[in-house]
Write a structure and sequence with these properties.
The protein is of the alpha/beta class and 570 residues long. The chain has 19 helices and 21 strands. Helix 11 (244-253) links the parallel strand 7 and strand 8. It starts with a helix and ends with a helix.
């Protein structure tokens, strides 16, 4: 590929003039000296954009990387929007254990303060759900979390929350994005930490906010007497992230023995013991499972770096010598079953509302609706679940209350006071759930089998394909365009398409326009295809369901069916 060397040099030199952190300058200085135009092109062919999910990218120098300059640029755009939206704007900022998260949080705070925005900054790392809670508790205009969630170590990101505690949604996300993406270097304001503090524009988050979160989460327990001082053992791994202190604190308040994986206890943005800090991946939970066998744990918990995703493993035998890692859908099914079981015994005047992403198993819907609740499907992204909670604060709240929100990607919420997925409080509810079924002489495996027997067996598979670099977006668009040409009567992996939903066509009124395709196939299979909103990949979700009693037959054929779909879609 031929590169416009003059243009690349101009962009690189402009960036170096604006970036004062040597850690992000050094590679660019070296590449300029060596004339490494291909490497410079990848750094400067575009700028990381503030999209509807915030901003996320690989750490490094350049406008197409996460660095101090890009954090300042986006924060200036956010400041401009906040100062228009509020006469006295304020923001609370949290960060996780990723490399440079504390630096980026500090820089965001100093840009906001330079624009006259009052800032609460956590002095140490905190999980996403505690930030969501803090926004509502402190009644700030917005919130920021510096995190790249479960992504590899080379990534970091920037997420924005609105005053309801949820991630920004229209019109705020578009308004912030428009201003952030239009900011020029000369527009960026910045002051020193000393100046920000002396003017009262930068203060630490008060300790009472954490105390209020813990109190609210413990009050949210359904059967606290069952879990208080229960002589069980929990094995837990924070995967080098922000969950360690809050999860341990909650369990200690309940008198529960919690054994933490020592090698993964301390925050470390390099995540040295795992290839990917995601409890969804078996390799990430390997140390926790080994410790569980040693300690004869009753349940195993794992959270990702920003502690919004929860992984669970359960013992398969009474001897506790082998464990099963649950899928995100299985965890959702167990939790919703437990919560609906409790709800059914309350004789409440209002009906429970459960909200799930459209790529989460429909078994959740069958459990909820068979017991008098309502299950609402929303687009992928917990901000859409937060929107449904907010609507209950209006007229709809007269006859419904929020019970549970879930995504198949290990995201769960049982507290309406939080407006994002919460692995901390969900971990405690999971422990309570285990204690409840134990009191009924059942393991969680026993209960999961009962659920399948009662509501039908469902299983799922998810796979994805990455499209990195400058040509990745074009390739993804081409693949989605090709799949859109498939219609009713066409075949996909040898299965005839019975129904097709294209969420871009405006026909599906339950969803805003979105780049998502749903195929319902002959034989009961369902396929959902969507480009990721935060990563350069297309994700494929496969859903298989059997009638009652057909579990063994489905399990015997599912591997072959998954392979067939992969071959057809990859």
């Amino acid at each position: 590929m031929a590169y416009n060397e003059k243009d690349l040099r101009s962009k690189a030199e402009a960036y170096l003039e604006a970036e004062d952190q040597q850690v992000f300058r050094s590679d660019i200085e070296e590449e300029l000296a060596q004339g490494s135009w291909e490497a410079l092109y990848e750094r400067f062919y575009t700028s990381l954009a503030f999209g509807t999910a915030g901003m996320r990218g690989i750490l490094g120098g350049g406008t197409n990387r996460m660095n101090t300059y890009m954090v300042r640029k986006v924060t200036q755009g956010l400041s401009d929007y906040l100062c228009e939206a509020s006469g006295n704007p304020s923001v609370v900022i949290a960060y996780d254990s990723r490399n440079y998260s504390d630096l980026f949080a500090q820089e965001a705070a100093l840009v906001l303060a330079a624009n006259g925005v009052s800032v609460y900054l956590y002095p140490v790392l905190h999980p996403v759900p505690m930030l969501s809670f803090a926004v509502r508790y402190l009644q700030t205009t917005a919130g920021i979390v510096i995190t790249a969630s479960h992504n590899p170590a080379q990534y970091n990101g920037y997420k924005v929350y609105w005053k309801d505690g949820g991630q920004v949604t229209p019109p705020h996300d578009f308004g912030i994005a428009e201003r952030a993406n239009a900011v020029k270097t000369k527009d960026i304001k910045h002051i020193s930490e000393e100046s920000a503090r002396s003017k009262g524009l930068l203060v630490p988050v008060p300790d009472k906010v954490d105390e209020a979160y813990y109190h609210t989460a413990l009050q949210n327990l359904k059967r606290p007497a069952l879990v208080q001082n229960n002589p069980i053992t929990v094995v837990y791994t924070p995967l080098h992230g922000s969950g360690n202190i809050p999860v341990q604190h909650m369990l200690s308040q309940l008198g529960i023995r919690c054994v933490v994986v020592e090698e993964q206890k301390e925050p470390d943005g390099n995540f040295p013991t795992v290839p990917l800090p995601n409890p969804e991946h078996p390799e990430a939970m390997k140390m926790a499972l080994a410790l569980a066998k040693k300690e004869k744990a009753d349940i195993v918990l794992g959270t990702d770096p920003d502690a919004d995703r929860l992984g669970i493993a359960i013992p398969l035998t009474e001897k506790k010598d082998s464990y099963q890692l649950l899928t995100g859908n299985q965890i959702a099914v167990l939790l919703v079953d437990y919560l609906m079981d409790f709800s059914a015994g309350q004789k409440a005047e209002k009906h429970p509302l459960v909200v799930k992403s459209l790529v989460t198993t429909d078994l959740v819907k069958r459990i909820v609706e068979s017991q008098g609740g309502r299950c609402k499907d929303v687009l992928t992204g917990f901000k859409y679940i937060a929107e449904q909670i907010a609507r209950l604060e209006g007229p709809k709240g007269d006859d419904e209350y929020f019970l549970f929100g879930c995504e198949e990607s290990y995201g769960y919420l049982t507290m309406p006071q939080i407006r994002d997925k919460d692995a901390v409080s969900s971990a405690v509810i999971a422990v309570e759930m285990m204690c409840y079924w134990e009191s009924k002489k059942m393991s969680l495996k026993d209960r999961l089998d009962q659920i399948y027997e009662k509501w039908g067996f469902s299983t799922e598979a998810v796979f994805s394909k990455d499209y990195e670099g400058a040509s990745g977006k074009e390739k993804m668009a081409s693949i989605m365009a090709s799949l859109r040409k498939l219609d009713i009567g066409s075949t996909l992996a040898g299965h005839k398409i019975i129904t097709k939903h294209d969420l871009m066509d405006g026909v599906q009124k339950d969803f805003p326009p979105s780049d998502v395709l749903i195929f319902f196939l002959e034989g009961g299979d369902k396929v959902v295809v969507r480009p990721s909103g935060t990563e350069p990949k297309i994700k494929y979700y496969l859903f298989f369901t059997s009638e009652k009693g057909g579990r063994k037959q489905l399990e015997a054929t599912v591997s072959e069916r998954v392979a067939s779909y992969k071959a057809a879609l990859s």
